[in-house]
Amino acid sequence: MAEKQTAGHDLLGDFAPKFAELNDGVLFGEVWSREEELSPKLRSIVTVSALVSGGNLEQLGHHLQRAKDNGVSKEEIAEILTHIAFYVGWPKAWSAFNRAKDIWTD
């Protein structure tokens, strides 16, 4: 079962309560919890790929850690980032590798 997410409430609840509600309740509460339709590991792979593709590196560290927690191995993340580098751009993949290296070195 997906872990209850409160980051939206914790970080933005006072400033943007509706956004925080949608983040925690819909994105993480309803979408990420649909484990019969797509495993957490696969959702993490898709999410990391999308974040790298869009150059959204601010959230990448969190989602790389989540990917590791969801069972993505060091070898798998290296292969995923190598593969998407040719589609999303070398500099984006390079940046993602630097973050992934820190997470999978622990």
From TrEMBL:
InterPro entries documented for this protein: 4CMD/NDH-1_regulator, AhpD-like, CMD-like
Protein name as catalogued: 4-carboxymuconolactone decarboxylase
Domain of life, source organism: Bacteria
Organism from which the protein derives: Streptococcus pantholopis
Residue ranges occupied by any Carboxymuconolactone decarboxylase-like domain in the UniProt entry: 17-101
Molecular function GO labels: peroxiredoxin activity
Pfam family, one: CMD
